[in-house]
Amino acid sequence: MQEQRKYIHGQWSSRWAFILVSTGAAVGLGNIWKFSYEMGERGGAVFVMVYLLCVAFIGVPLLMSEILMGRHGRRNLLSTMRNLAEESGLSRHWDLFGWSMIVGSLLILSFYSVIAGWSMAYIFRVGSGIFSGQDAEFSEQVFANLVSSPEIMLAWHTIFMCISMVVVSLGVRSGLEKTVVILTPMLLILLLIMVGYAISTEGFSEAVTYMFKPDWSVLAEPGAFSEVVMPAVGHAFFTLSLGMGSIMIYGSYLSEKISIAKTSMVIAGLDTAVALLAGLAIYPLVFTYGLDPASGPGLLFITLPVAFGQIPLGELLGTLFFILVMIAAWSSGISLLEPTVNLLIERFNHTRLKATLFTGSLVWMLGIFTVLSFNHWKFEFNFLGQHRDTGIFDILDVLITNIMLPLHALIIAVFVGWMMKRTLCKEELHLREGFLFKMWHVTIRYVTPVGIVLFFLSAFFG
Ligand code: TRP
User: Fold this and answer.
1) 313-346: b or e for each residue (b if 16 or more CB lie within 10 Å)?
2) With a 6 A CB cut-off, is 108 part of the ligand 1 pocket?
């Protein structure tokens, strides 16, 4: 019998609670806002296929690894990294990786919160009926008005940070679990209603073709690697919430009895299903109303309201839709706050309230950079052949999606595959020396690291 480990911090009440909170963390703006506009800008079905392959072959094994590390360490990110490293006979300085995850999660939340703020602003814009019968030009104007007004964006960013802080300050079970266990199913239901509507539109079959029938010749075009493959790989990490400690800390609250392998597949499956469903809810409207799939980060906010302005019950559907986006963002925002809050509580003995207030205020301040990226501080730059035009917001996106996420994924794969003891991994995963375990181990040891190294090599040396 394995000795019952002592719980030094909170614990989820059940396997389903863990699945729902982790799915809540995974499903977010990434699935609805980022996935839909990236797909539109980056070759449709080809982007989707590369992303699906990455989720299956790199994402799931990594998800298992991150949960495994979290549950085995059962501590804040720094102590977890230090303990795991010491146990494997490595330097204590592995806690630097813990710091890197903390920094990454706060940077992500800083822009995430601003975009979540847009979706909250749109609940009221769409709900008030101003889009009724309007065209794309009007919609562009509404969006431009929003992003050119730092005050309004700042106000919504503030509100989003506050609601996330309230949940986190209430703690693991009474805050995070209680809230997200309601939010995630609600989101799924709202999404199904939206898809149900989309099926009845003319653009549905065109959307299905667009999303699922890849035109592989796209990959032969010059720049396809940096324009299509790189973002798709980064997106797979982003959408599963990998590499920044969200999943590691949630794993640390998971009971030993639960199977990590099965749970990870359920989470990745639900996350992918939501992304595809979101695509199926959005793209039929884009095609039915002749809107442009490649309109960038504004896609959700510029094109969709036009469609909502045309259709029967559009105000209601539109309001529901942006509520859904907000809910999705909310349960993810929480997961980005928790690693730092937990660290401050365990390492620096702060109360949960104080830790949350401190972390939230820090992220709020960082968010000001994103707020200003769309107006006063807007500038353009090129990164490895990608043209970017929204200043610091885009620098953050490049830094996170193209550099930090793949790098952290590589570190996790090498750590779990090469540094941690094989038997320990097997025990923690509750797997026998069978096919499943061997597959996982070979993937995490060879496939993932080699894949990511090739990814970096081709990115930086063409
Ligand atoms: N996965 C979330 C989304 O798709 C965002 C997110 C939450 C995240 N926690 C994360 C992304 C940790 C990267 C790392 O919206």
Assistant:
1) ebbebbbbbbbbbbbbbbbbbbbbbbbbbbbbbb
2) yes
